[in-house]
Amino acid sequence: MTTTRFAPSPTGYIHVGNLRTALMNYLIARKAGGTFILRIDDTDPERSKEEYVDAIKQDMEWLGLHWDRIERQSDRLDRYAEAADKLREMGRFYEAFESPTELDLKRKKQLNMGRPPVYDRAALNLSDAEKEALRAERGNGVWRFKLNHERIEWNDGILGDISIDAASVSDPVLIRGDGQVLYTIASVVDDTEMGVTNVVRGSDHVTNTATQIQIIDALGGTCPHFAHHSLLTGPQGEALSKRLGTLALRDLREQGVQPMALLSLMARLGSSDPVELRAEMSELIEGFDINRFGAAPTKFDVQDLFPLTAKHLQSLPLTEVADAVAEAGVPADLAEPFWIMARENITTLSDLKGWWELCRDGAEPLIADEDREFIAEAVALLPEGPFDANTWGTWTKAVKETTGRKGKGLFMPLRKALTGMERGPEMATLLPLLQVIRARG
Ligand code: GLU
Asked: Are 160 and 125 spatial neighbours (Cβ–Cβ below 8 Å)?
């Protein structure tokens, strides 16, 4: 059965880059009728925070990315210790004692000599007595996985055939000196034990994948099918990594971005299919195909989310936004006509308040000198209330007959007098909502 997972580290708020990973894994699982796991990668006790775990769950729920199972790596440390023992017994795990400064120096020397900065495996030559002495002097070493120096190959769901020479990669550290288990092994153990069949993640993980394939092999697991999506850049192709902090999902939510706008964009951005606003998650699931995504960096412009949000809001019935309409101050009996009028004229729900204020308080009339008399005449012709959708038509017809004005010369001064603006909602839908006029009518 298809099983995927989204595996964020709870060291910060999740952002649009994370969302891409989460969404792809979610859509694959749902399309196949499989299982989607939310895995919290919290093996780093200093950087992992409970508030971020909660925030991740809230953000996922807001988007409707519901998980079937939640797992926490911090609950599974004994499983990782077991796997480490297994690697030790196999002779694929060794302790190394170089300090970060020493490693840095080694790397610099290698680079100076034009060689790739790969760990030289000096620790493999240490005798037991030397290790004892180093341990006494420096404390426990780190544990490195001994790669087999051969080519590591896989068919990537996005990148195609990949072949990496294991000799060009350092033996990965899987356990730190202080005993902290690192993601590289924890993830392998989880993916294997949880039956993960497909892993989609960012292309910054390609080298990890190469080493993880060997670890999975060593532990006797089955390799999932890997796909590495490109990383997001800004609209001009500039690196987004530093700005991702400002593109947290909760900030977008705060700015009024609608989930379906965000999901519709992220499900297609970087693929050969056009971005299309979808009304339902089921349509996104139906229309998703990982093979359509390309390896090139994907340009992301936060501004693209707003027209999509506006378009999405236009399609919604009052029932879906009743809370927001009430929050804007609109009385229940006007909610329906108000929403029909306003939804065509907002970008986000926070714009509702302004339109309600216009309806409730009226606007400072905008009347040109040459229109003063005309407006006075028009006001005198305003029919008796109650107003409905036909009032505007009846009224402007009467004004036209009396004043002889027509077209723009007729409508624009009325619009400006009533709304204080040159552009805005359909006057026929707005007029019955204008409370001042209603009161008068
Ligand atoms: N916790 C890892 C990350 O956030 C997970 C990577 C993976 O999907 O394997 O980068």
From this structure: no
- Ligand 1 center to 8 CA (angstroms): 6
- Please give the number of the atom of ligand 1 that sits closest to the Cα of 208: 9
State mean pLDDT over 95-119: 96
- Residue 440 in this model has a pLDDT that exceeds 60: no
Domains annotated on the chain, with CATH: 1-67+230-315 (3.40.50.620), 316-440 (no CATH)
- In the DSSP assignment, the letter for residue 10 is S
CA of 180 to the centre of ligand 1 (A): 17
d(CA 307, CA 230): 25
pTM of the complete model: 0.93
- With 0-12 CB in 10 A as exposed, 13-18 as middle and 19+ as buried, what is 97? buried
By most ligand atoms within 8 Å of CB, the mutation choice from 39, 41, 194, 206 for ligand 1 is 41
Q: Once rounded to an integer, what is the mean pLDDT over residues 272-291?
A: 96
Q: How far is the first Cα of the chain from the last one, in angstroms, to the nearest whole number?
A: 66
Residue 248 to residue 333: CA distance in whole angstroms: 37
